[in-house]
Structure formats: C-alpha cells, structure tokens
Amino acid sequence: MFTPGWEVREGASTNPYTGPPGGYDPSGEAIGNYTYVSSHGKLDRAMAELESLTYQESGALCSINFFYYMNGTDTGTLTLSVAMDNQRYPIWQRLGSQAARWIDEVILLRSMPLPFQIVFKATMTGGSEGDIALDNIQLLDCSPDHVAPSCSPNSYFECTNLECIPKENLCDLRPDCLFGEDEQP
Q1: Which range marks the domain in which residue 160 is found?
Q2: At a CB cut-off of 8 Å and minimum separation 6, what does 168 contact?
Q3: For residue 1, is it within any domain?
Q4: How far apart are CA 113 and CA 86, in angstroms?
Q5: CB 127 within 8 A of CB 73
Q6: 80 and 166 share one domain
Q7: Is 24 exposed, middle or buried (0-12, 13-18, 19+ CB in 10 A)?
Q8: Which end of the chain is more exposed for a tag (fewer CB within 10 A), N or C?
Q9: What letter does residue 96 receive in the DSSP assignment?
Q10: pLDDT tens-digit map of 40-62
Q11: Is residue 183 part of a domain?
Q12: 14 pLDDT exceeds 90?
C-alpha cells in the first residue's frame, strides 16, 4: 500500500539531476518500473510510506533484498521497519544523499512467528533537490520452518521472534535479536 508521495515510474525521474535515470537492471540499462518520491514541493518532515501485504510468519533464513537510490542535497531519510503486533521496529536506515546510483541491500529478517509487514518510510527535508527510489524489493527464503525453536533457559535468551541467542550475548552493546531486546536492561 502506498501513502501519498510515492509514485510508480518508468524511465527517468522528474528531476534529471537527482533522480534515477530508470529502474535498476544488472546490465546497467535504465529500464523497468520503480517506486519513487521526490522532495520537490514537499514540506519539511513530510513522510511517504510503502507497506507490504501482511505475511503470516517466516522462517529463520528470511531476508529482504532491495535496491535503493538516494541522491541530492535535500535527500531525507529512508527507514525500513518490520510492523508486528501493532508495533513498528526500525531495522535499517539511511540518511541523506548516498550516491547517484542504485545500491543493493540485503537484510536478514530471521524468524517471524506472528503476522508481519515490511514498511519503507521516506521522510523529506523540505528542499527541492532530493530523491529516494526503491526497486526489485524481494523477500527471500521466508518459508516458515514449521518447528518452533525452544531455548534452554539456562544457556539461551529467547528473542521476541523466538530466535535463541547465547546468554553471554546479552547486553554486549551489539544487538543480536532482530528488535534489539537483548540490549535492553
């Protein structure tokens, strides 16, 4: 689901100086459709969201692969969140201009035992020279495992998504659980 602001485009963006020349293609050709939001004409902190369908659950190897394009002096923020159980959990973010090219990103989502959605949010800066685009968004290896892991309470901590991590990884200043709960007091 798109909120106002995102557009589906084919070919060059409306701003040839900051937008992509076309959709991502591994051969380097600027072809195909992509989704795009421009800062031109937007108020400071204006937001546009792109939400996936609701998925019932996922397996331990589930990841998301996407290409993003963020270019221009007024490029805002692109945030990827997982929405689950009426909460949003930011898991990835980029701020400002990244490059005048498509960048490949792969993020491990791991096991999701509850219904969830993937949400991309673009927050604009209010200037006129900034563009954010997304292409080739895919969930990979997300089939449910159908076997719920169980953690040994003496040796492991159970994350919200039912993943087990060793207790020695708790409060080590490095989030091991998808939502970072292993670093919370």
Answers
A1: 148-178
A2: none
A3: no
A4: 14
A5: yes
A6: no
A7: buried
A8: C
A9: S
A10: 666 566 789 999 999 988 988 89
A11: no
A12: no
Burial 37-65, CB ≥16 within 10 A → b, else e:
bbbbebeeebbbbbebeebebbbbebebe
Domains contained in the chain, number: 2
Q: Which two tokens stand for residue 138?
A: 């895919």
Same domain, 55 and 39: yes
pLDDT at 184 over 70: yes
Quick one: 140 and 158 in the same domain?
no
- Rounded to whole angstroms, how far apart are CA atoms 171 and 175? 8
Same domain, 169 and 132: no
Work out the number of other CB atoms within 10 angstroms of the CB of residue 93.
12
Q: CA torsion sign, 179 to 184 to 169 to 164?
A: negative
In one-letter notation, the amino acid at residue 174 is R
* CB contact at 8 A, 161 and 177: yes
Question: Is 87 buried (19+), middle (13-18) or exposed (0-12) by CB count in 10 A?
Answer: exposed
